[in-house]
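User: Before I run my own analysis I want an independent prediction to cross-check against. Here's the chain; please return only the structure tokens and, at the end, one sentence I can use as a sanity check.
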Amino acid sequence: MSEATFYLFKALLDVFTLGVVLNFLFRLFKVDYFNPIVQGIIRAVDYPSQFLRAFLKPIYGIDFATLIVAILIQSTAFYLAVIAGSITYDPVKITIWSLYSVVILCLKVSFWLMLGGIIVSWVARDNNHPAIRLLMQMSDSIFAPFRFILPPMGGVDASPILAFIALRYLESIFTSFASASGMPYWLSIAF
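Assistant: Structure tokens:
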């Protein structure tokens, strides 16, 4: 397999993984499923998850079927690197690297959702565009547990600060686990 072909297929698998991770986050945060953006992404990427969801039901609102599909897609991307000769074949390492890659991707997407939610809340909170509604729903769902710990004080909501600190902490833990396992950064979608 040529290097250009490898990067093309890897990029396509990474985009599909991103869609599956967004699908997972939609279900985790219980967003409005009538939003056209949500419907479009779910239609595009949910078929493999539906098959697996028939056997593996969500537990406490966590859709493990979608996570497993994301891990399998990333494993396929790492396997392409084996075919291209970039890494050696070790199924246990590839599975662990895929797990770390998906978890770090979830954390990175959550970071951008929080940042986008904060910016939109300053600029266009009352805008009714589907993308802005989706962004506000998802970022508010991330901030909700932190608002319970640190409620708004005098009109200032400091919960995003705690959320960013917790997210950065989790991201640094999983990044160090990934690097300790020998995961090549250039192969992971999350780096």
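Sanity check: Residues 3-187 form one domain.
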